[in-house]
Structures are given as structure tokens and as C-alpha cells.
Amino acid sequence: MCVDMIMKVVRELDVSAYLFNVLLSVFGLNSELEVKAFPRSGKSPRGDYRQLLLKARCPFVSSCVSEEVTMATVPQGNVGKPRFGPSDRLIAIFRACSRDPTDAVKTRLRRMLHLFLQHHRDDEGRGRSKVLAVKCCCEAETWYYRILENLLIQERQRLGISDVSDMLEYDLLQSCLVACCLEISVTSNHLSCDFPLLQQLLNVASYQFWKVIEPVLRLGVGLPGLVVKHLAQVEVKVLESLAWTRDSPLWEEIRANEGHMPACQQVMLPTQLEGSIRTDFPSTLNRPRRSSSFHLFARKVYILMGVRLRGLCSALDISDELRLKTWTCFEYSLVHCTSLMVDRHLDQLLMCAIYIIAKISQMEIPFKRIMKCYESQPHTSRSVCKNVLISEKDDAVLTPRTPSAHYPGPSQVKRGNLIYFYNQTYTTKMQHFAKQFAPTFGGDTPPLSPYPQLKKASPRRQRLPCSPTIFVSPYNAETITPFTSRLCYYFNSSPSECLCEINNMIRTGRSPRRSCYALSMDREDGEDEDGDDGPSAKRLRLNSQSAWQRRLRNVMNDRITRQNQDQVQSFPVNRSMLH
User: Fold this and answer.
1) Given this model, what pLDDT does residue 463 score?
2) Which residues form the Retinoblastoma-associated protein A-box domain (predicted)?
3) How far apart, in whole angstroms, are the C-alpha atoms of residue 309 and residue 351?
4) What is the pLDDT of residue 526?
5) Whether residue 258 is found in the same domain as residue 206
6) How much is the pLDDT for 455?
7) Are residue 261 and residue 158 in the same domain, yes or no?
8) Residue 96 and residue 92: Cα distance in Å, rounded?
């Protein structure tokens, strides 16, 4: 039976000899049987696999693995037979390097896949989990070489170079990339070994793992929607808590930045901030620093927490003036009292800032009401309010410059609820600053920190997984050009023939000569003609029109469309792709 299960993995696939040996290892087969290589002739290697499997001893037999486990190792969201190992194009990139990185890349990949499989091999009695683990490794290798190839091509074009040895020899980056590819395959196959368990197993820090998420998502390599959503959630987890653990590399970068987090104004462009706010910062703080991943991390933290504070203030009926004071207090705690975040959650500091500013401003909001309102938000967990780190040593002053060995160990700390943390720890460091916002304060009030502007939702252009040349994007009458070399279909505007041409192009792989169709209110005699290359259509005439004229035309088009909605036909293209 073990032979049949392994054959499900390798059937119809030209897998590498290494992966075949992995299959033997994960099922506990004869360790002396090792395959060095398979002949690369025209015939299928399946017979070789079968013979070797029959020679191997099989101590692992589990009845829990049944035919319902489909071992289709094609990465989800992609069409076609997967290729194990680097493509010809990637091999050419390797050969163009001053130092051939092929062996180092393969060795690193094998080591990390072995760690992953060893974890599931030691998990006795879970046969289905072992089968899925093998499938995840096969998919992860395919994803790794595909993503690596696209990243290298992008980097070569950006820098104008052909030698990318430094990027390939950067072990931390490549390890994080392998971990990310395993995360993709684990999520796709619903294996119970996802983030952060996986990165702990592979010994990859959450903060370092976060650095590869955005580059991978921006590549547009056809990741399934489930994976894209999961990686976005992973990024949020890292920003709010996982990057702030006591052993995180983030603290090294904070120490290098004079022991402080960058201020919001240091990492945001003026266009990303709310309008005229009184600021008395030095001119050096008014220049955004966005070059490093550390400043990118800080910017994403401020954007995330700006959205969350806005939502809480709306639910608690807090005015904009009080919201800006709360934000200033929260930013001060991150920049000047950064040690408050050691092994804690950003939302904990945010709720404390809401309470202390409201209390000083003589607006009584019970702390329990703040926590209840917080727990009603979609992103929250009860443990954020119930399980807060509280150090037993009141005299221990921890700073980001303190060596990690001086932080309290597991036996020197205790935990409590958020109110206890506020009374015992938070007020001792923040009360002096917060009191400056009291109505009775006699001195100068601190300047209000700039607040991140609410980002407008703008759906980005998406590439269909089935084709590298088909894109779906939101229609924008301000930027669309009337004549392009592409086929275009505007929902609720274009005639059905346009969609038929796109579908024909997808089926046949050939693009007709006619390029772009759309409805227009500007029709002239002789303009509507039938030709051999496609159906007749009314052309857009935008060159001599101003923006308000185009808006007027769109309004008129919408009215005509609403009158003809009963005649709208159903089309093969899925309209949900727009969302």
C-alpha cells in the first residue's frame, strides 16, 4: 500500500532523484536504498520508480490513507505540468553568475525540506499528514524555482546587471524564500503546519520572513486567492505582535536607530498624511526615510494602527480632536518608550492610549467598555486583553539597548489582564507625557503627531492564472486610452462581440487585428462598418475631450445601460474576477 501511495506522488511527474529519496525517507523505507540519478531518456521513469519501490522494505502501513487523498502535485492556480528543478532560463541565469550558485541553492532547499519532512515523519500515526507533507515539498520546490526566477529577472532589469551572485548567496533571503514557498504549499493543501509553526520549525524569524511577503505577492506568479489572503494575514500578525518578541531581529535594528522606532513623519510622505496639522518637529524629521526594510516596517505599522484607532474611535464616539491626541500618545510610546512592546501586542498600547487620554481629557470611558468594543472588531483575539506580559521586577528598566541576556527569562515574568498592565507598567512610563494634554496643564501642549491618511480602496490589475496575457482591472475613464494594441471589454458598456473575441483568443491563442471596443455616444455616419477581422463597434473619441466631457459621456452611457439591462446576456468570462 505504501508503494501505491508514493506512486500517486511520482506518477506522470519527472521528479528529481532527491525527491524520490525523500519519499523513501518519509515513509521509513530502506535507508540503504539511495537513488543517485535517473536516466533522462525519452521514456518515462515510472518503471524505474516501481522497481526501486518493490525492492524497498515498507514498515509503514496505515489504513487511514485512502484514495480520497488526491496527489495532484500541480501548484494550485496554475495550469500545465509542473517542472521540478530550475528551468532552462534559470539555469542560464545561474551560469551568468561569477560564482555558480547551483549546488548551494539545491543544498539549502534540500536541508529545509528535510527539516519539514522530519517533523512529519516523527509524528506517528498520522499517515495522511505524511502524504500531504510529501506533496507540500513537491509543490514548494516548484514554487521556489518559479518565484526565484521571477525575482532574479526583476532584479537584473532593475539594476541593469547579469551577475546576481550576491542575491543568490544571501542565505537569509533564500531561506526566507524557501520558508515562504513551503507556507504557500502548506496553505494550499490545508496541512496543519502553517505560520508561525512552520517558521519556528525552519528557524526563520518572523520579522525576516515578513520581508519576503510583499516581493512575492507583487510578482504576480498566479498564487491562489486563498494563499494571497493568508499571506496578508501573516503580515498583519508579524506587524502587530510576532515581530516584537524579545528574540526578534527587529530589536537589533531599533538599537541601531539610537534605541527608537522612527516617528510617523519620518517614514510617511506628506501625501500619505492627513491635512494641516500643527507640527514643531525639526526639519530632519520632515524628510521621509523609506529606503530600508526597517522604515518600511514602521510605515506599515503606523498605517495599520491608524486604521484600527479610527475604527475604535468611531465605535466609542470619540471626536477627531481626541483621536489625534490619542494617536500622538500612542506614537510617543512607540518612539520613546519602545521597551513597552517587548513580547507584547500593538493593540495593547493602543487601548491604553485611548483610556489615558480620555481620562485626562475628562471624558470618562470605562476600560472595560474599550476592551469590549475592541473584541467586537474583526481582527481581534480575547487573549490580547486577557494575557498581557507583566514583569515581576518593578525595578528592572528594560530598553531596546539592553542586551537580550538581561531581559527577564520565563521564570522571571508573569502575566495578567490589560487593566493590570496599565496600572502597573504603562502609567509609570506614559503618565508624565499624557498629563500635558490635560485642560488644566499650565505649560505648552505637545504638538500633535501627523495621522496616516485613510487609504482609498483601489482594486489593482490582476492577471488570470490561466493565461499570462489576460488581465482584469477596474475601469477608469480618466486614464483609459482609446486605441491600444489590446483587446478590451468594459462591463455594462461594451457589446457582446468584444467578449466573444476575447474568449476566442483564449481558446485559440491568437489575437485578432481589431484591438479595442467600447460604446460611445459620438457616432458619425460611415463609422459603423463590418469587416473581416471582427464585428462592428462604435469607437471611443477621447483625444479632444476634457475630463468633464468624458464624465458626462459616462453618465449618459450608464443611463442607456440601465434601460437595456433586461437584454444583457450571460458571458463565459466570470464577472466576479473584478472583485
Assistant:
1) 61
2) 63-254
3) 9
4) 41
5) no
6) 74
7) no
8) 6
Taking only the tens place, the pLDDT of each residue in 521-547 is 333 434 444 444 444 334 433 444 456
Instruction: Say if 406 falls within a structural domain.
Output: no
Domain tally, the chain? 2
Contact in structure between 506 and 489 (CB atoms under 8 Å)? no
- Looking up residue 383, the CATH number of its domain turns out to be 1.10.472.10
**Average pLDDT, whole number, for the chain?**
74
Pick the closest to residue 335 from 276, 265, 392, 280 (CA basis).
265
Does 166 map to a domain? yes
What's the pLDDT at 484?
A: 53
Strand partners, 39: none
Q: Are residues 353 and 419 in the same domain?
A: yes
DSSP 8-class letter at 286: G
* Cα–Cα distance, 143 to 3 (Å, whole number): 26
- Express each pLDDT in 60-90 by its tens digit: 323 222 222 333 334 444 434 445 689 999 9
Task: Write out the H or E segment, with its range, that includes residue 415.
Answer: strand 413-416
- Residue 95 and residue 219 in one domain: yes
**Which pairing describes strands 388-391 and 462-463: parallel, antiparallel, or unpaired?**
unpaired
What is the residue range of 318's domain? 249-273+292-392+413-437
448 domain-assigned: no
End-to-end CA distance of the chain: give it in Å, rounded: 45
Contact 273, 265 (CB under 8 A): yes
Q: What is the pLDDT of residue 476?
A: 61
Helices (H), ranges, 339-398: 346-360, 367-375, 383-386
Which residues lie below 8 Å from residue 512, measured CB to CB, with a gap of 6+? 487, 501, 504, 505, 533, 534
Residue 467's pLDDT is what?
A: 56
User: Is 131 in the same domain as 159?
Assistant: yes
Are residues 202 and 260 located together in one domain of the fold?
no
Pairing of strands 388-391, 413-416: antiparallel
Among candidate residues 208, 203, 217, 221, the one with its CA nearest the CA of residue 173: 208
Residues of the chain short of pLDDT 70, as ranges, are 1-84, 122-127, 194, 276-291, 392-412, 456-471, 473-486, 492, 509-553, 556-579
What is the reported pLDDT for 153? 94
- Chain-centroid distance of CA 78 in Å reads 19
CA gap 249, 172 in Å, rounded: 12
Cis peptide bond N-terminal to 378, omega within 30: no
d(CA 156, CA 71) in angstroms, rounded, equals: 36
Whether residue 257 lies inside any domain: the answer is yes
Whether 159 and 265 map to the same domain: the answer is no
Cell of 229: 489572503
Of 214, 330, 312, 309, give the one whose Cα is nearest residue 261.
330
